[in-house]
Amino acid sequence: MVFNPCKKKVGRWIIEILINVFLLSMLAVTALIVVRTQNLFAVAMLTGIYSLLSATFFTLLDAVDVAFTEAAVGAGVSTVLMLGTLSLVGHRQKKQRTVQIVPLLIVTVTGLILMYGTLDIPPFGEADNPVHLHETTVHYLEESSHETGMPNVVTSVLASYRGYDTMGETTVIFTAMVGVLLLMSGRRKDEIGGTDDGE
Amino acid sequence: MESNPILRIATKIMTPYILLFALYVQFHGDYGPGGGFQAGVIFAAAFVLYALIYGIETARLVLPMGVATLCGALGVLIYAGVGIATMLLGGGFLEYGFLDSHDAEHGQHLGILLVELGVLTTVFGVMVVIFYSFAGRGRVEE
Amino acid sequence: MSALSFLNYWFVIILMMVGFYVLIAQGNLVKKIVGLNIFQTSVFILYISAGKITGGTAPILDAQWSVYSNPLPHVLILTAIVVGVATSALGLSLVVRIKEAYGTIEEDEIARMDESL
Fold this sequence. Notes:
The structure holds 3 protein chains of 3 kinds.
Chain A: H1 5-36, H2 40-60, H3 64-89, H4 101-117, H5 130-133, H6 135-147, H7 153-161, H8 163-184
Helix pairs in contact in A: 1-2, 2-3, 6-7, 7-8
Chain B: H1 5-27, H2 36-54, H3 56-62, H4 65-88, H5 104-135
Chain C: H1 2-25, H2 29-50, H3 71-102, H4 107-115
């Protein structure tokens, strides 16, 4: 099979760059509209759109498990939660003073410091970055099929190699349920004749 | 939305497939993208859809708040229970190889299956409880 | 090529800063939580893009592929996403209770009510 690998790789590379740039610019547009708009219903919808776009971006970056979770949790559950809150709280925001100087200054300084910090990051996508050559990654990718017998390395790392962390995560989400039950189980105080008994 | 026949019938048709898809994602998390968290959220989404179309009170008859809270706690219990079981069988906490005395890899399979089941149950219970808490709060004028 | 990779990271940092600005500058409590969500999701994009290998594939072992993207950031970010939704749920339930206690969710009105007590 004779083909020119350089040309094929360059062609695929250009398409990937274009999709990359398109998705990032859509993300930026969505974030900027969230800053400016005052209709909170639109803001909830835009958050869902932001999560879905970032899920697509994750798929482009080969993170399929993360994309699945972000789409389900971010664009699914988070949007439902926010709409539920807006139905209880009201969906218009008060008119904001146009631009606030001090937060803008803080944000700019933080952004510049972070950008200065990223000058040390190894270039994007190179196979010989230190994080890919570390023995932990190499061990997980090579030994996972022998030791656990499952092809999905992310699931085997999540459930077997890093099982403690996943147990902590499950406990965190259980704690969120306890917190929401504590906060939201009583009746509303302005209910006529209602007492403060929960479910 | 209960009076709209299209939404009612579409929900009734779609709900079993959503639940089945959640179970598919759960059990095929070993071979493709998926796992406990995604499956738990999709499983809860079926009940959220039902509650949106048929009303919170009807949904609470199908899946009471107490059962959902119990599921949330049960999942953490299953997860920690697997750890305790491996300790009782002689290994360390969450050392799945000891679950099967003959083959360590088989033990890993069993351990990961049980642990992901625990995660599914917790995430499902928590998402349903949070939805019930937000959506069922304070409709004063009925 | 390396200049392009810097642009990639810097763009994500700009997204992070937009979310951060919404978090600290806006007065509405629900919008603050939305800004927190945008901040969190942009941080996830930063981490996942650090684990990508060009020409590799998703870390699901297969006979045809030899180069896989790094699975460690994926595991970390999976946990972070779930913790993020837990935080948002708790934050939003606090906002609901604040609305019921004060009657408003604008930060300056709440501060004024607190001062006048």
